[in-house]
Amino acid sequence: MLKGRIHSLETFGTVDGPGIRFVLFMQGCLLQCQYCHNPDTWSLTEGKEMTVDEVLAEIEPYLSYYRSSGGGLTVSGGEATLQAPFVTELFREAKKRWNLHTTLDTNGYNEGDKIRDLLDVTDLVLLDLKHIDNEKHIKLTGKPNDRMLKIARWLSDHGRKMWIRHVYVPGIHGDEQDLLELGRFIGSLQGVEKFEILPYHQMGIYKWQELGWAYPLEGVPSPTDEEIERAYRLIHEGEQQTAAKS
Questions:
Q1: What gap in Å lies between CA 242 and CA 164, rounded to an integer?
Q2: Which InterPro entries is this protein grouped with (predicted)?
Q3: What pTM value is reported for the model?
């Protein structure tokens, strides 16, 4: 019987897709983001094993809230696509039983053709673009960004709906040319229903401490409102540059 490794779950999520949502956090991630607030999800071998039916049983008591709010089921992580067969079956059953809206929250470190079955039962993709500059992306996450940009293009080319999210860390994401380039890239995509900057916060530091790990961004503050406004302005300017060329 197909089982997934689950880190945790949330029954009343309000930030990971439209409406009120059941959010399932999968165990395992191949990126090691310096600002990660769930580093305990990185291990591929930990977490609680659950079957699809066991997860569906957790969802069922709250269905009326999800339906009435225009919400549904979001699978996040860790990185959900590392357990694509399990998530595919979960989405398929949630649609078959309840016609529930499905959202995949992913860092994009996978290939569209390899997870096509999962994307075929996914109504919305939340795609985290960590950094548009490849070298800075490697420093930030430990991996290059080519796969992330490639899957964004795949989603665009295949008519899939997506929200793009971008964590903003002072000193890492403030370069003007990077923000303009991010906007140019987003502006070249089809199907982007929403773009959102997520201001960096320190709320996950205690998890690094519990693991006995040194926190890479020790002392880095959260961005100011002015920094976030500037980032939105430059990204929008980059989008407009792309639009003007098309």
A1: 17
A2: Aldolase_TIM, Organic_radical-activating, Organic_radical_activase, PFL1_activating, Radical_activat_CS, rSAM, rSAM_sf
A3: 0.97
